[in-house]
Design the sequence.
């Protein structure tokens, strides 16, 4: 897989030889302090987890294994930021997370609201796995170890390849990119790493790997995968001008809070980003799967529906439900059942 660097000067993260920093001033630590966060976690009464078990969600493994038509654009949301994309004859998986908990230990930490709708062993053959950053809710070591055995190409931001090699991914299968660098899946299919406003780290480390959003540019369709990002209007404008508008835009809407307003969009800022990227169908990610914030678990999608207005075509499938993007907006309302 070859890659090249875009020539136009654009927003860049900085690297001091040890850690990466965002292109704009960004606060990761909560302004009110961690003691205030602990009090909120203990005493605020929002329904952060479903009170009753959610229904069993199942993807159609047989349908997903069928050959992908050359001009198809389909998406199957498997929970949080994990999406199986079928785009222009290829299958691309984003931020694969199958473990029960997104934590250093499977004995404690945020637990899934529902089982993965597609078992990892039932995944069809993939053309690429795209990673946005190395946080536990986006990079699942157990899933990576399984996928490594398939020989699938991995595309990731700078530094994340160290994790992948440790978990068994062959070096030849890893392409690490800086913002605005691109890699060719094939002669007519380009993957571009683009800016995001976030941070990285597993355990006690922080920012020793880069974070990114991604543009997937096929011969017929273009998809934007935002990964995790806070408000970053100039970056989204630059991405939209360079590669938009997109046939499908995937942006995070959950795990937002004023205490970490710089690093997560939330529904309202996601709609701003969506407009700067060029609009089009919006598939919201990063919600409804894990308890990672203080808001009620349904709040992100409820607020998105309130704020979106008729001009934003929303794709709101149930987990595991395959969406044909060309079919138009979809509102499964699964969170109300």
Sequence:
């Amino acid at each position: 897989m070859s890659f090249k660097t875009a020539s136009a000067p654009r927003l860049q993260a900085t690297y001091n030889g040890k850690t990466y920093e965002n292109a704009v001033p960004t606060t990761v630590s909560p302004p009110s302090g961690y003691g205030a966060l602990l009090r909120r976690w203990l005493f605020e009464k929002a329904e952060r987890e479903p009170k009753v078990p959610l229904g069993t969600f199942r993807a159609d493994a047989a349908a997903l294994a069928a050959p992908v038509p050359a001009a198809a654009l389909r998406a199957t949301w498997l929970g949080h930021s994990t999406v199986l994309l079928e785009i222009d004859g290829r299958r691309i998986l984003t931020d694969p997370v199958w473990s029960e908990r997104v934590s250093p230990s499977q004995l404690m930490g945020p637990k899934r609201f529902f089982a993965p709708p597609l078992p990892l062993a039932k995944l069809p053959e993939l053309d690429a796995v795209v990673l946005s950053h190395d946080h536990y809710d986006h990079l699942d070591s157990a899933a990576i170890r399984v996928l490594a055995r398939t020989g699938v190409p991995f595309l990731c931001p700078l530094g994340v390849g160290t994790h992948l090699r440790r978990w068994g991914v062959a070096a030849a299968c890893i392409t690490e990119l800086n913002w605005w660098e691109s890699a060719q899946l094939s002669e007519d299919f380009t993957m571009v790493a683009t800016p995001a406003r976030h941070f990285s780290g597993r355990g006690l480390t922080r920012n020793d790997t880069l974070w990114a959003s991604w543009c997937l540019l096929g011969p017929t369709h273009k998809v934007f995968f935002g990964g995790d990002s806070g408000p970053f209007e100039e970056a989204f404008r630059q991405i939209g001008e360079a590669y938009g508008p997109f046939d499908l835009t995937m942006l995070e809407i959950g795990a937002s809070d004023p205490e970490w307003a710089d690093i997560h969009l939330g529904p309202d800022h996601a709609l701003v980003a969506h407009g700067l990227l060029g609009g089009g169908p919006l598939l919201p990610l990063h919600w409804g799967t894990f308890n990672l914030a203080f808001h009620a678990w349904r709040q992100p999608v409820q607020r998105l529906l309130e704020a979106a207005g008729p001009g934003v075509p929303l794709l709101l499938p149930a987990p595991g439900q395959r969406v044909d993007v060309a079919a138009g907006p979809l509102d499964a309302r699964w969170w109300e059942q």
Summary: The domain at 58-327 is CATH 3.60.15.10 (Metallo-beta-lactamase; Chain A). The chain has one domain: 58-327.
